Amino acid sequence: MPVNLTEARSGGRRIHSLALRNTARLLKYELSKPGFNRQGISAIIKGDRMRHKAILVRTLIAALLVSPLVTGSPLGCMFETRVLAQKGSKAPEPKPRSRKVSDELLDEVAKNPGRVHRVIIQSNGGKADSIVPSIGNAGGRARQVYENVGAVAVDLPGNSINSLSKLGDVKYISLDKPTQVTGHLDVTTGAGLARSYGTLLTGSINGNGIGIAVLDSGIYASHHAFTSRIVASVDFTGEGRTDDPYGHGTHVAGVAAASSHVSYGAYTGIAPSAKIINVRVLDSQGRGSISSAIAGIDWCISNKSLYNIKVMNLSLGATAVDSYVNDPLCQAVRRAVSAGIVVCVAAGNLGKDEYGNKLFGTVHSPGIEPSAITVGASNTKGTNTRADDLIASFSSRGPTRGFTTDESGIRRYDNIIKPDLVAPGNKIIEPQAPNNVLEIENPSLDANVSSVAQHEMMYLSGTSMASPAVAGAAALLLQRNPSLTPNMVKAILQYTAQPLAGFSTLEQGAGQLNIEGAVRLAGAMRQDLLSLILGATLLTGATPAHTTTISGSTFSWSGGIIQKWNVITGVNLITRYQGIYGSGVLLSDGVLLSDGVLLSDGVLLSDGVLLSDGVLLSDGTTLSSGTLLINGVLLSDGVLLSDGVLLSDGVLLSDHTFASSTSASSAATIAQSALNGEGTESMTIEIDTNPSS
Ligand SMILES: [Ca+2]
Ligand SMILES: [Ca+2]
User: Fold this and answer.
1) 410 within domain boundaries
2) Per-residue pLDDT reduced to its tens digit, 220-242
3) Which residues surround ligand 2, an ion (CB under 5 A)?
4) What's the 223 CA to ligand 2 centre distance in angstroms?
5) Are residues 144 and 289 in the same domain?
6) Interacting residues of 444 by C-beta distance below 8 A, sequence separation 6+
7) Which of 16, 117, 224, 248 does the annotation list as catalytic?
């Protein structure tokens, strides 16, 4: 519709006013049309043939903004902005739309269109939540919403990026660059914190050069979590292979020593640069014999120097019937410890009955061996903070129930305190051997972080996963202080562990693995320990602070160690060299008890000792009435114990039943697997987006 400005040109303010009114009316008409057209507006203004555009347009806009003609128009502000930006110049030309996808990401997508890419999507208006449904519709997965910055971290298939970028709520999509994330195990155990406590030689603590022997069902050696660090592989099952058709050993090795290669480090093991020695003693069905396990241990002792085997992990066990004094697997472990190897052993997964009742006295062999580091399982709930951590319900509880029978037919139970400590063992994600038996029988164990076998991960639960975390920790301690004896490694791990409130010593030993504290304490000790005499000063400087802070929460160390039937506390344990720390001397053997004070060859071992020198409270008296404390955690929560019976909150398997209910006494099997673990949150799934390397 042409605008008649003849009258307006004839002069006077009235004319201008009329022109403005007419133009405004037309503008209002254009603005009201669906699909508001900037060129239409420009045509109106040009059609006015106004000579004083700059002044007039400004006036016009001012008028429009207060005019009832346009109030309420949602486009008013947009129009204002655009026209003002063009003031004094020609009408605006459509600018090329700025792309909403970063070039870097476009390059990545062009290279790998089918791949899932890790991206950051920024939202318009800062409401990140509103774009999450669209992300799902596009086949993506929102990993984390950052409310304060209006962005979402997303795993997004390459072929969805273009369509998603066209949504109005989406402001920009760019590559979430693969900076290293810190894995859950790394963080919650404190291993990540300890990495920077370097040595002069290595600069960082990662297990470099330390050999960890994994006595298990074999290892899938092609997995990129291990490449080039498996320095030896031997088979004692008779199957003539060292790979892992069962799927257990690969995962166990990963907990101890997986590299940060997959998923940006989300599944980094505890000692990611350690050497791995693959000693296959469990067959393709996860079964083994006592003799094959002993053969594996024997081989490790023989080849200790060749592969620098400092640590051994045994996530396996058999029903404990014989006292550790006679049990052949225990004796083999003892020999390895005497040879200077730290031996970590799973406590077992017999911590509850079919009704969920706690079972005590269920640690299996060789977890009943005093010189072993016997590891129970904690449940981290998938969170890095330790404030919510619990003892896993399935984790086997002490005391040990192996026995000897005297000439009168009386059984003498070992009844020693186990486990020694606990470590994360619920729903742990670590490397998966391809097509393994465990996964085929339990498809939900597949974590699906990668489509490539060499990067694929699976879930497993159990003390089988907890033990290798401690094995990895031992490697870190030995790298930090190569002069530590196995007994000292054990003492440091226990002394720095965090007692979890609400659980007795028979459930958690000294507490939960604290690698930050352990590596720090190991570093504070002299490095000439092998030549020390009793009572010598252990520390090179000030006594380390007995607290650790992980993920924002600070906890106290246990400050104690366990010796068979005793919990010993006191700073003397770390300030003075004790006889029990010697190489080749069993922790807990050869120690004198006198008037309730534990002495070690005349040196006061500790300032807070108690308990009997024999069977744990075999006379049926209360184990503790509040006196036996480790940082406020009772040694035992009122459990009454006598041979064969355990009351209170737990149910002791009748030894009779325990010994006869399984035919496994001659077969070393992996801890009857907890497999699916407890129904709490797991570690976060981190999709691996770089599978080809
Ligand atoms: Ca937690
Ligand atoms: Ca898979």
Assistant:
1) yes
2) 999 999 989 999 999 999 999 99
3) 446, 448
4) 14
5) no
6) 459, 676
7) 248
